[in-house]
Every structure is written in structure tokens, then in C-alpha cells.
Amino acid sequence: MAVALTVVVPVKDEAQNVGILAREIATALAGDTSYEVIFVDDASTDGTPTVLKQLKEDMPQLRIIRHARNAGQSRALRTGVSAARSEIVATLDGDGQNDPADLPKLLAEIQAGGFQLGMVAGVRLQRRDNWAKRQASRAANRVRNWALKDGATDTGCGLKAFRRSAYLALPYFDHMHRYLITLMLREGYKVQYVNVSHRPRLHGRSKYGVWDRAIVGITDLLGVRWLQHRFRGGVFETEEL
Ligand SMILES: Nc1nc2c(ncn2[C@@H]2O[C@H](COP(=O)(O)OP(=O)(O)O)[C@@H](O)[C@H]2O)c(=O)[nH]1
Ligand SMILES: [Mg+2]
After folding, report:
1. Span 84-96, mean pLDDT?
2. Is residue 235 pLDDT above 90, yes or no?
3. Dihedral angle sign, alpha carbons of residues 74, 80, 83, 88
4. How confident is the model over 40-78, as pLDDT tens digits?
5. Residue 137: which H helix or E strand, with range?
6. What CATH class is the domain 5-131+152-208?
7. Pocket of ligand 1 (CB under 6 A)
8. How far is the CA of 95 from the centre of ligand 2 (A)?
9. Closest ligand 1 atom, residue 42 Cα
10. Which residues contact 148 (CB under 8 A, 6 or more apart)?
11. Interval between CA 38 and ligand 1 midpoint (Å)
């Protein structure tokens, strides 16, 4: 069965968050849109699998895919996008910090755009993270923008909508989910931005620390810069009939 939209949610140890989030997604998309929701459980060690299984009993749109071992957020996203039954895919974080009520806005934008619009990216106007994370993120963004010059202001926002085929053609590497905007632009796609809300994490803890993120961040920046240079610009091809 084909659907108009697939919502992909990567989760690692979010037992207390997934139930609330799944219901919020269903509320946000109730109406005309045919959709499915794929939770990609990245080998959680808490009660996440049990909660998801229970949810599925009264949410027929729900699909659960489980990694046999922990493989990270980028890999979980790719697993979900690969499994999606629609060309338009939206993503959001599994901890409830992104508000599913923003999904219809992103969906409307990506549907209204032509095939050259690769992605609609959420921009969190007011971050609801602690002070240390906000400062670290601000500093990281400055370095990132200096190195990549792609105009992205909030690359870390989990709320995004894109074309499945465009996403699956991007080069894959661990942590690539932080560079999706850059990678889309590199292929010659346009990226549009939509302001979205952000909420505090209600349950569980963040999976990323400030320092581990900074260290892999430097290697990633160098790698992504290299990728930007080793490219001749996007090509949209036509077939002679
Ligand atoms: N699949 C998967 N998801 C992860 C992993 N680490 C974090 N996530 C998910 O990615 C989202 C963002 O992570 P979070 O810890 O909230 O990061 P923060 O908001 O930047 O503090 C949440 O939905 C997490 O459950 C991981 O190793 N694998
Ligand atoms: Mg979070």
C-alpha cells in the first residue's frame, strides 16, 4: 500500500517519550493525509521495544524496525528512509523536543515545491536546551558556517521533510544527519527553511555530550569540506524519448 508521507523517528532509550510522541504525530496528521510512522529502535536497552509493541496494537500506521546492535542516529535514519513506502519523508527526534504539530507545515512546503526542492528544514527559533548546550551549539555553528559557507542556521534540527530518492543518493557516513542541508545543496537541490518550535526534553537524558560532539565535529567538518570541493555541481538529467 502506498502512502503520501512517511514519518521516520530514530530512537535510542526513549521508553517514556515514544508513547506521547506517537499520539502527537497521529493527532497532527489526522485528516486527509495517508501516512505511516516508522520508529527505528537502535538497539535500545530500556523498555522502548515493549512500549512500541504495545502502541502498535491501536496504531495500524505504526511500523517498528529494530537494529540488532546500536549503530547511531544517522544509520537509524537511513534504515527508516530506506524502508519508507512514500517518496516524501519527514523526520523528527524521538525525545519529544520537536513538536509534531509542525509536520503539516513542512509537508505543505515540500509538496508545493518542484523536484528541485530537495529538502524543507526546520529552524528552531528558541532552543529549549540547557545553557551549556546552547553555547556549545552557537560556537559550533560559527565554525561550521565559516568552514562550509552553506547558509544553514540550524543544521541540528531533527524536523525535516525531503524527497526519499534525493536523500538516499547522498553520500553516507556516521553523523551525516548533521550535514543533510549541505549535502542536499551539494547535489544542486534547493533547501527551504521553516520556523518550528522546540520543547524541553521531558524524560530520559540526551545521548550526546558537548565534548564528544565537538571532537567528531572537527573530523566531520574536514570531511564535508572535502566532499564540497570534490563535486562539479548538481545535474538534473532528461531522457530523450
Ligand atoms: N537511533 C539512534 N537514535 C539516537 C541515538 N542517539 C540519539 N538518538 C536519537 O536522536 C534524537 C536526538 O538525540 P538527543 O539525545 O535528544 O540529542 P539532543 O537533543 O541534541 O540532546 C533522539 O530521538 C534520540 O533518541 C543513537 O545512537 N541511535
Ligand atoms: Mg533531544
Report:
1. 97
2. no
3. negative
4. 999 999 999 999 999 999 999 999 999 999 999 999 999
5. helix 131-148
6. alpha beta
7. 10-12, 14, 40, 42, 70, 72-73, 76, 93-95, 97, 158, 206-208
8. 6
9. 1
10. 182, 221, 224, 225, 228
11. 15
At residue 175, what are phi and psi to the nearest 5 degrees? Answer: 75, 10
Under 8 Å between Cβ of 19 and 52: no
Q: Whose CA is nearest to atom 27 of ligand 1?
A: 72
User: How do 88-91 and 5-11 pair as beta strands?
Assistant: parallel
**144 exposed, middle or buried (CB, 10 Å; 0-12, 13-18, 19+)?**
buried
Q: What are phi and psi of 45, to 5 degrees?
A: -110, 5
Domain boundaries, the chain: 5-131+152-208
- Tell me how far apart the alpha carbons of residues 105 and 195 are, in angstroms, rounded to a whole number: 9
Under DSSP, the state recorded for 178 is: G
Strand partners, 39: 9, 64
Q: How far is the CA of 62 from the centre of ligand 1 (A)?
A: 19
pLDDT higher than threshold 70 for residue 182 = yes
Cα of 134 vs centre of ligand 1, distance in Å, is 16
